[in-house]
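Thread: "does anyone have the structure for this chain?"

Original post by V.I.:
We have the sequence but no experimental structure in hand. Need at least a predicted one for the grant figures.
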Amino acid sequence: MSAALGTLLGVLVAGMLLRAPIAFAMLASGIAYLIVKGQDLGLAAEQVLNGLYNGYVLLAVPLFVFAANLMNAGTISERLFDFSRVLVGRMRGGLAQVDILVSVIFSGMSGSAIADAAGPGLVTIRQMLKKPEYTPGFAGAVVVASATIGPIIPPSIPMVIYALVSGTSVGALFLGGVVPGLLIAALLMIGVHIIATRRNMPKDDPIAAAELPGIVLRGLLPLTLPVVLLAGIYSGVFTPTEAAAVAALHALILAAGVYRAFSPAALYAVTLESLRSSAVITMIIASAYLLNYAFAAEGIPNQLAQWVNGLQLGQLPFLLLVNAVFLVLGCFLDVSVMLLVFVPMLIPAARLLGLDLVHFGVVVVVNMMIGLVTPPFGMLLFVTNALTGIRLRDMVREGLPFTALLLLSLLLLTLFPQLVLWLPQTMGYVTH
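Reply from O.Q.:
Generated one for you, tokens below.
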């Protein structure tokens, strides 16, 4: 290891231990690398600006964030909740089943796990806590687990970022996430059914027949968004990046124009919050370009690829090793950091082994979603705790069966690539 690379890693670890914002820690470590290397510090700005200006696909990130915030502020979450109650509410543990179905529907609109937990998830928790049979820990655990579906079923912000670092088709990645997302939802619903049966959890209250048509009609309008997005992308009307703008416009028309759910002041607040969230993501992405330059200059990706080749690992052992590494890293690091810093180092090795990068990408994203629910730094746990006051240890304890089901889904996707590739192949995106 060179002195420059050692300095980079030392500054990065020190920044994280001091709890500095991760983007600033990454940027400082990259600048420290350039100083020790004796290179012009202007190179930092060059790498950041070139990366951002050439990353057209990045435009999708703030737009999907804006669309998700609009839906959470515009009563769309409540309408989807009522619609899902009609479909699955009468199952055992009905409200928990409703939450999973809402997550599946909402994932076709937002692409963000945090938005899912903060919007539909919060609505469901409030309803579950009205019934004594649902413990707070169980309610929080279901919401946390189901929110992981958000970035797997298209659209997906993490998949957009993965496409940026790997050069993979966003459209193919979006299609590759459909079956895995539905598989995870099905496993979680089975898990809820088993737990609810053992604990004799109630079915949801019946809905009066006279109210059904109105509830269904109110829920159908938001459901047009996933249809518009997917039909537009795969018919060629607009690109996946442009689809993010369509999603934001669609959500704005529904929330502000049709439902009249918030005032201009509320719209300003939603816009400001979206700008803040997007700025955080953009800062991480910008600083990651500098780190990626340093790693590439040191030849780390190629050395890693050659090391993997020297181990004579097959595709499956390599994927299992990647899963193990990311499951550990996911307990401590943000998804964006893993996607932007660690994944680019693994792409050459994946290519060398002949792995399909769509399959690899979906497996990586599912892996990172599991990291959002695992302590000590599972982001979804902290978000749900902050919004509801449910204790972290209660959610972790009640969430163990759901975490096991998420791990089972990851194993199935790793062992059977066709679960990911069937739909992209059928649509002509993947040819091998």
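V.I.: this helps a lot. The chain has 21 helices and no strands.
O.Q.: and The chain has one domain: 58-426.
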